[in-house]
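Q: Sequence in, structure out?
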Amino acid sequence: MSKNTPIPQGFLKNPIHLLALGFGTGCAPKMPGTIGTLVGVLFYFPLVYLSSAYPSWPVYIGVTIALFLLGIWLCDVTANHLGVHDHGGIVWDEIVGFLITMTMVPPDWRYVLLGFILFRLFDIWKPWPISWLDSKVSGGLGIMLDDVLAGIYALILLQLIVYLL
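A: Exactly. Output:
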């Protein structure tokens, strides 16, 4: 089956699939990864302001790690039920990858936009070893890892830009 196999009717009624498919954004007919990344943007702002210790980076990092670990399971279950290793509609990995990109970045809309663009570029381009991970590691971990690494690449570049500005 292909990465573009249609999502079965009623599939989103299962909360596991609802989350893995980015609350339905992964069902978009075009650019589901990009649209799913927008959910990451919606997660970013409340997450960065979770505590009175504005921003609370230890909390942010802890929640991001928890979402990554949850994503391994969500993506694995959903991929198995769809019968496709990394179905294009599975976008939980994009949500987490974007949150990784934004780690310790000032909460400013310009950096959010730049982080969004950088993450999408690395996720689509898949420079080594992202492409290698994408082809060699299977299951939920494989689905998550390539976006984690794309997020780390985007984070490094974004931090350099923030530092230089």
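The chain has a mean pLDDT of 92.
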